[in-house]
User: Which sequence fits this backbone?
């Protein structure tokens, strides 16, 4: 349930900020590590700082690039 919510939130909030490939990479993280989905949901809260959310996403994408 939380993974699905994180995925739906990602799709609605990051459409302007991330490429389709980047979004799929983040969704893969959500499905392999529940803590990433939970963290994203906290960062996606309207009260949270959007800069921190974008920085967190960038770090996850860098992490994925290192794993390839």
Assistant:
């Amino acid at each position: 349930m939380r993974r699905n919510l994180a995925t739906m939130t990602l799709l609605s909030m990051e459409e302007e900020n991330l490429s389709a490939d980047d979004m799929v990479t983040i969704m893969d993280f959500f499905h392999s590590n529940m803590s990433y989905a939970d963290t994203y949901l906290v960062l996606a809260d309207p009260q949270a700082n959007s800069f921190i959310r974008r920085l967190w996403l960038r770090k996850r994408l860098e992490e994925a690039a290192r794993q390839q």
